[in-house]
Every structure is written in structure tokens, then in C-alpha cells.
């Protein structure tokens, strides 16, 4: 990363005013910001940037009277659900597993909502925090939170995808905007456990394109001599209207057998158009302990057929930077995680937005020449 001119944290837990949270005043328990991270990003008509921060709000004392509690939206209010502690596995700070069933069932230790934060044109300074434009649960299919916004500008409209979490489904939901800052809910666009949906910033032959990542517990093996590894991959889908999506027959970006860093992978930034093709930044995960090591990689896709990878690098573009989070050491709960979620052009560089350590928002300047 020697040619990256700017690399810093721009927003973190201490920058969130929980008195203005959508959860404020709904229950008699104190909360804190577990993380303010994974920011979607777009360029506003004013020239400023906007990031859309996932605020994971958690209980300061989740365990009381032998129960661990989860926050849940319920018909316009937020409530606390108690789970017997002896039935739960709490080894992962982000969630707890509920034992006793025939399959894995979990609840979250926090509830997430999306906070728009306006930045200077180069992303290096905060301009405003727009609590009045926050995106929070509004239906039963997102009762455990709205997570990981990704924002794309297509024509004169901004499109935001989010993950909506509930016992009903783990779905992808779509919001739209005419100004890049105020978003209205559209609908569920992908069903159960399809994460990291990234809409391309432009049409191909009049159709919307997107990267998706269906999840599951079963994957069929490639042949023993294949260069690909079975597991989560970055798939493709098309749509006439950004609401109704059809999976593509061809695969997208697949995990490579030659590196453990893609044992799990998924989309990062919405693909942006360059002179050579679509530039996409994505994450690869190397297994380690509970969470794994998250790194950012990049690929250049064919301008007319994004299933064709023109160029890629197996060397990580970004890795977790412990020096950035050193001042937040008392708040750290995972390490070795950088999760890139936004990209925008600025002069001869790209402004890249990432979640760092599931804790804070990181801004990195990367010369556009790095990808040529």
C-alpha cells in the first residue's frame, strides 16, 4: 500500500449520538455502539460524498437474571427478548447460537440501522451527520436490523441495497433516492440468505446488472484438478427495473483453489465503469479462529459480459491496519477484518470506503493508475 496517499478512520462508535438513535427511549436499558462500520458510499449532487454507516447498537448489559437479551423491532417499537443463557453459545461477540433444534439458530447481540454521514469531496472531513435520514427497521422481515448498505447511482437515480434480518427471512431489500441522501423503501428484491448485492453503476444493453452472493451449508465439489474451490462465490443477475432479478447462467467470480484467502468470498463495492471494463472490489476470507481474516481484492470485468474476468490480482489490495484502530483498542472485539463497501472517483484517484475491524469506517485514497 505504499502508493496509497491517504488512509485513516473517518467515523467510529464515539461519533454516534445515541440520544438521536431510532432505538432511543423504547426500553429501559442502556445501549452502546458495538460498531459504526461497513459504509456504502456515493457522490452527491453538491460534489460532497455521503457514506451510509451501519450502526450496530448493543445492550451494555445483555445478560441479566440468567438470560441473554436480544433487541427486536416489533410493530413500531423496540423490545428485549430474553434467552436462557444455558441454551446459548456466546463465543462470537456478534451473535449467539440458540441450542436445542435440528439446525443452527442464532440471535444477534446488536440491532443495526443505517446512518447517513456527509463528507468533503475527497472523503477526508466530516461535513454533517443526518440523523433525520436514518434507515431503520419498518417491517417484520427486518425486525433484527438493517445492515450493510451499498449505494449505486444509475442514470438519475440512486439505488441502495441492504440486508434485512429477521426470523422470517434473511433478505436483500432495495431503497431508492432522487438526491442521493434521502432514501425511500422499495421492496424485497432477493430472498433468503443472499448477501452482498451490488448493483452496477450503469446499464448494459438497457438492463440493470448486479453481483449477488447466495449462501448455504452445502456446495457441490468441482473436479479434483479444477482451479476453483467449492463454496460461496460472487454470482450475477440482471433486471429490467432493479426490482425483479434473474440469475445469470454463467458464474461470476469464484474462489480460487490456489489461495486460502478465498475460502469464503463476496462482493465489496458496486462495480464502476472504467475505460477498460467494470472495476469491482471484493472481499476474500482466510479461515482463522471464529471470524477469519478479511482482505480486499479487485478484478476488472468485461464491459459487455461481466462474467468474463479480464484482470485480477491475488495480492490483497487492502488488509486490516492495526495502527488505525490502536486508539480504539478498548472497543476492539474482532481483528484482521477490512470489509470494503464503497468507491468513488476523485481527480486521479479512487476514494475507497471500508469497514475496519467491524468497528469503524476507513477511507483510503488509491491512485486510479493502480488498476491499469
UniProtKB/TrEMBL annotation:
Transmembrane segments: none annotated. GO terms for molecular function: glycosyltransferase activity. It holds the Pfam family Glyco_hydro_130. Keywords: Glycosyltransferase, Transferase. PANTHER family: GLYCOSIDASE. Belongs to the glycosyl hydrolase 130 family. This is Glycosidase.
Amino acid at each position: 500500500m505504499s502508493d496509497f496517499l491517504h488512509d485513516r478512520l473517518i467515523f467510529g462508535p464515539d461519533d454516534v449520538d445515541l440520544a438521536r438513535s431510532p432505538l432511543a427511549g423504547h426500553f429501559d436499558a442502556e445501549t452502546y455502539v458495538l460498531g459504526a462500520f461497513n459504509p456504502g458510499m456515493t457522490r452527491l449532487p453538491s460534489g460532497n460524498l455521503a457514506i451510509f454507516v451501519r450502526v450496530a447498537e448493543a445492550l451494555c448489559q445483555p445478560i441479566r437474571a440468567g438470560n441473554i437479551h436480544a433487541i427486536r423491532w416489533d410493530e413500531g417499537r423496540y423490545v428485549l427478548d430474553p434467552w436462557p443463557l444455558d441454551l446459548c453459545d456466546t463465543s462470537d461477540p456478534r451473535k449467539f447460537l440458540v441450542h436445542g433444534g435440528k439446525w443452527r439458530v442464532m440471535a444477534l447481540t446488536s440491532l443495526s440501522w443505517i446512518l447517513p454521514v456527509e463528507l468533503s469531496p475527497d472523503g477526508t472531513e466530516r461535513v454533517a451527520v443526518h440523523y433525520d435520514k436514518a434507515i431503520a427497521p419498518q417491517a417484520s422481515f427486518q425486525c433484527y436490523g438493517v445492515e450493510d448498505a451499498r449505494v449505486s447511482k444509475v442514470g438519475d437515480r440512486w439505488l441502495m441495497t441492504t440486508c434485512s434480518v429477521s426470523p422470517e427471512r434473511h433478505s436483500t431489500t432495495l431503497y431508492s433516492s432522487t438526491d442521493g441522501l434521502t432514501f425511500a423503501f422499495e421492496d424485497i428484491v432477493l430472498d433468503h440468505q443472499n448477501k452482498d448485492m451490488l448493483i452496477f453503476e450503469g446499464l448494459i444493453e438497457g438492463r440493470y446488472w448486479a453481483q449477488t452472493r447466495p449462501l448455504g451449508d452445502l456446495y457441490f465439489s468441482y473436479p479434483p484438478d479444477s482451479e476453483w474451490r467449492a463454496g460461496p462465490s460472487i454470482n450475477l443477475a440482471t433486471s429490467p427495473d432493479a426490482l425483479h432479478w434473474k440469475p445469470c447462467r454463467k458464474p461470476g467470480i469464484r474462489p480460487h483453489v490456489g489461495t486460502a484467502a478465498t475460502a469464503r468470498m463476496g462482493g465489496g463495492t458496486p462495480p464502476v465503469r472504467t475505460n477498460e471494463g467494470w472495476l469491482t472490489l471484493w472481499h476474500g476470507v482466510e479461515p482463522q479462529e471464529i471470524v477469519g481474516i478479511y482482505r480486499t481484492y479487485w478484478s476488472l470485468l468485461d464491459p459487455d459480459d461481466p462474467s468474463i474476468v479480464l484482470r485480477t490480482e491475488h495480492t490483497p489490495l487492502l488488509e486490516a491496519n492495526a495502527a488505525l484502530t490502536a486508539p480504539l483498542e478498548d472497543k476492539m472485539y474482532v481483528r484482521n477484518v477490512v470489509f470494503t463497501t464503497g468507491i468513488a472517483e476523485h481527480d486521479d484517484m479512487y476514494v475507497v470506503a471500508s469497514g475496519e475491524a467491524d468497528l469503524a469506517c476507513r477511507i483510503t485514497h488509491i491512485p486510479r493508475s493502480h488498476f491499469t
